[in-house]
């Protein structure tokens, strides 16, 4: 029985304009639980940008005062050169910005610290020596974004292992992860969950998801995975009072118990190659699967195979290959980076609200994940153009900002300033 036949038998509704499939057999509103949330950063860290996609974990920025227009010179407060090459995003804590970089084709990997007020480089610490990974041209050797709790910075260096540094750049611990054979290199960013650092590596053999003690680097648990490729980042969510660790990778979305790594449930339907990080809201996980494949809206929870019971809606075509989605208020925004088309869905029902082209159609033209702030959604392509959309049910392109350099990294936003990593620089944009 094929996909559509199973959906019809389940009582699904197919909306032809977007080919949206409801798999529930019951009204969508009646299924949605409000007890689902991304576990946010709390305390002092909520004032900064301490991890991949910020304190919300999904690119949402609170407050106002952030400029929505800039150029290579307009509203640029400072610009400082970044040595080496890398696509990792900056993270911010206090008066410091941290990011990783690579030298000599990946033979040298390091963590850098910059002064947030002036852009001055403060220190650089190198990872242990080792062989360079084979990588895709858009991945590079420094794609994983660090995370910090204000005491240490935790970094995934791929085959060079997982490491923790203090705020002055001294290495506190290093954990060797062994051979990580992924044909496009490693990329996923580490997740800091309670007292643990969690990473997953889907590789040609011995794929795993694992947790390490954040103080010592000692392995807490490791669970083997049946997957061979994947470049996404794990997230932690809270579902009706209990926590779940979510890994979206090859062919499926999987939930684990973050305490011991045991598998809780899985939902099939993704493509072979997955990069985007899921977002959470309206009682669902939203999971674009990569390579212009399906976007899945899943009600988390349950046990075992939940594909036929918890897949609320899906849009089989048009997902991003690299950028993560944006859930802003009641709309889910995705950018198909194979043709530069942005799509907005009603997050609850999956109805397509609009589509529009952002710039010139180009294959794999976007890498940075979108940002939402002050009623606007920002999409930056690899050529350094940022398309500013008015949030809402209609396609309204307000204007386009030209940075003048290639941009593959996602920005960090703190205290009214954007911190952007370009191909050669770190740039502070503000009023």
Percent of residues in beta strands?
A: 35-45%
- Give the CATH level 1 class: Mainly Beta
Determine the N-to-C terminus distance: 58 Å
CATH topology: Methylamine Dehydrogenase, Chain H
Show unreliable segments: 1-33
User: Could you say how many structural domains there are in total?
Assistant: 1
Strand line-up of the largest beta sheet: 1-2-26-24-23-22
Give the overall pLDDT as a whole number.
Answer: 90
Provide an overview of this structure:
- The chain has helices spanning 3-9, 28-31, 307-310, and strands at 14-15, 20-22, 36-38, 60-61, 76-81, 91-93, 96-103, 108-115, 121-126, 147-148, 152-156, 162-166, 171-175, 191-193, 196-201, 208-213, 219-224, 235-239, 242-249, 252-256, 263-268, 279-281, 284-288, 295-298, 304-305, 311-315, 326-328, 331-336, 341-346, 352-357, 371-373, 376-380, 385-390, 397-402, 412-414, 417-421, 425-429.
- It has 431 residues and is mainly β.
- It has one domain (3-429): YVTN repeat-like/Quinoprotein amine dehydrogenase (Methylamine Dehydrogenase, Chain H, 7 Propeller).
- The relative contact order is 0.15.
- Helix content is 3%, strand content 41%.
- The longest helix has 7 residues, at 3-9.
- Residues 1-33 have low confidence and may be disordered.
- Strand 12 (162-166) and strand 13 form a beta hairpin.
- The strands form 8 sheets. Strands 1-2-26-24-23-22 form a 6-stranded antiparallel β-sheet. A 6-stranded mixed β-sheet has the order 3-18-19-20-21-25.
């Amino acid at each position: 029985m094929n996909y559509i036949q199973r959906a019809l038998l389940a009582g699904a509704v197919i909306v032809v304009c977007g080919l949206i499939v409801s798999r529930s057999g019951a009204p969508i509103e009646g299924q949605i639980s409000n007890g689902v949330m991304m576990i946010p950063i709390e305390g002092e860290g909520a004032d900064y940008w301490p991890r991949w996609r910020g304190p919300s974990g999904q690119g949402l920025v609170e407050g106002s005062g952030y400029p929505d227009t800039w150029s290579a010179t307009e509203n640029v407060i400072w610009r400082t050169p970044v040595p080496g090459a890398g696509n990792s995003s900056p993270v911010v804590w206090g008066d410091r910005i941290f990011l990783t970089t690579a030298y000599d084709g990946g033979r040298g990997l390091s963590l850098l610290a910059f002064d947030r007020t002036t852009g001055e480089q403060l220190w650089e610490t190198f990872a242990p020596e080792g062989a360079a990974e084979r990588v895709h041209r858009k991945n590079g050797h420094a794609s994983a974004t660090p995370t910090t709790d204000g005491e240490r910075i935790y970094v995934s260096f791929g085959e060079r292992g997982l490491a923790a540094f203090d705020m002055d750049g001294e290495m506190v611990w290093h954990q060797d992860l062994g051979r990580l054979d992924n044909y496009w290199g490693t990329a996923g960013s580490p997740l800091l969950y309670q007292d643990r650092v969690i990473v997953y590596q889907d590789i040609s053999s011995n794929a795993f998801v694992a947790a390490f003690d954040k103080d010592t680097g000692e392995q807490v648990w490791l669970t083997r995975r049946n997957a061979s490729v994947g470049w996404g980042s794990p997230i932690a969510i809270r579902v009706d009072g209990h926590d779940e660790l979510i890994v979206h990778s090859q062919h499926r979305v999987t939930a684990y118990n973050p305490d011991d790594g045991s598998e809780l449930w899985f939902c099939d339907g993704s493509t072979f190659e997955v990069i985007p990080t899921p977002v959470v809201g309206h009682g669902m996980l939203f999971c674009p699967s990569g390579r212009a494949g399906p976007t899945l809206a899943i009600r988390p929870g349950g046990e075992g195979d939940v594909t036929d019971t918890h897949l609320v809606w899906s849009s089989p075509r048009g997902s991003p290959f690299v950028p993560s989605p944006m859930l802003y208020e009641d709309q889910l925004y995705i950018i198909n980076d194979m043709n530069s088309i942005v799509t907005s869905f009603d997050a609850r029902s999956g109805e397509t609200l609009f589509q529009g082209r952002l710039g010139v159609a180009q294959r794999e033209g976007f890498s940075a994940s979108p940002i939402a702030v002050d009623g606007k959604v920002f999409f930056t392509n690899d050529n350094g153009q940022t398309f500013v959309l008015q949030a809402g049910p209609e396609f309204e392109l307000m204007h386009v900002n030209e940075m003048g350099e290639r941009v593959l990294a996602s920005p960090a936003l703190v205290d009214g300033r954007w911190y952007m990593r370009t191909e050669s620089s770190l740039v502070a944009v503000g009023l």
